[in-house]
Amino acid sequence: MSPEEIQARVLHRDASVLVIDKPAGLAVHAGRAGDDHLGLYLDALRFGLPRSPELAHRLDRDTSGCLVLGRHRRALARLGEIFAQGDAEKVYWAVVVGRPRQDEGLIELPLKKREAKFGWRMEVDERGGLPSATRWRLLGSDGRLSWLECRPLTGRTHQIRAHCAAIGHPLVGDVIYGRGTGTLAGDRLALHARAVTLPFQPKRPPVSVTAPVPDHLRALLSGCGWTEEGIAILAPL
Question: Pseudouridine synthase RsuA/RluA-like domain spans which residues (predicted)?
Answer without folding.
Answer: 17-166
